[in-house]
Amino acid sequence: MAIEVTDRDRAKALRREALLRESARLFATRGFNAVSLEDLGAAVGVSGPAVYRHFSGKQALLGALLIDVSQRLHDGGAAVTARDADADSRLHDLIVFHVTFALSQSDVIRVQDRDFSQLAPDDLETVRHLQRAYIQNWMQVLGEVRPALDPAERRLRVQAGFGLINSTPHSVGSGAHASFTAATLVAMTKAALLAELGDGGYVSAPTTPTN
Fold first, then answer.
1. Tens digits of residue pLDDT in 165-207
2. Alpha helices in 85-120 (DSSP H)
3. Helix 176-194 and helix 151-166, axial crossing angle in degrees, nearest 10
4. CA distance 193 to 157
5. pLDDT of 25-66, one tens digit each?
C-alpha cells in the first residue's frame, strides 16, 4: 500500500534540504563554531528554535551534511566500479565523477576539511566507514589497471589524487574557466595515479635540452 505524501511532508523535506544547503554555505564561509542556530534558521526563513523540528542541534546538522556527501560519493563510486567496462574506462570515469562532484560541492569539501573533528562520535565513525569504502573502490580499479602496485602504493596514489582534486574547487569559478579546470584536473589526476617510477623509486623528471 502506497504511503500518501502530503503537502506538509513535501514542505518539511524541502526545508530540510534548504537547511543542509545553507549550513554548507555558512559553515564553509564562517566555520562551524562561528555559526549559530539563529544564523541557520534565518538563512532559510525560520527562527533558530525551528531548526529543532528537523535536527536535534547544530552538530547533528553537520553530521547529516557530511554523512550525506560521503554516502553520495560512496554510491557514485560503487556504481562506476560495477559498470561492465574495461578497467581503464572505469578508472577514467571514477576520476571524472569525483572531479565533477568536487567542483560542484566546494562548500561541503571546505567544511569536510576544516570541521570534520566537530562531528559526534557516531557520525564520525559513519563518515569514516563510507570514506574507507570509497577509497577501496578506487584501489580496486587502480589495481586492475596497475596490478604490480601493492595495496599501500595504491592507497597512497588514490589519496594523493583526492588531495589534488579536493584542493582546487576552493579557488575556481564557473563557466569556461571551470570547464577548463575540470579537464585539467582529470588529466593531472590520471597522471598522478598512473605515474611510472624511474630508478631509485622516484618519478622520472623530464630532461632539459641543452644547446
1. 998 766 654 444 556 688 999 999 999 999 987 544 555 544 4
2. 87-104, 106-115
3. 160
4. 5
5. 999 999 999 999 999 999 999 888 888 889 999 999 999 999
Superfamily of domain 59-192: Tetracycline Repressor, domain 2 (1.10.357.10)
Query: Which residue ranges make up each domain of the chain?
Result: 59-192
DSSP E strands, 69-210:
none
Q: How many CB atoms sit inside 10 A of residue 85's CB?
A: 12
User: Hey, what's the cell of 62?
Assistant: 553537520
Q: 88: helix, coil or strand? A: helix
105-137 core/surface letters (b: 16 or more CB in 10 A; e: else) = bbbbbbbbeebeebbeeebbebbeebbeebbbb
Q: Residue 171: name the closest of 112, 95, 109, 115 by CA.
A: 109
At CA 123, angle to CA 118 and CA 33, rounded to 5? 20
Half-sphere exposure of 54 (CA within 13 A, CB side): 27
Residue 101 · residue 72 · CB < 8 Å: yes
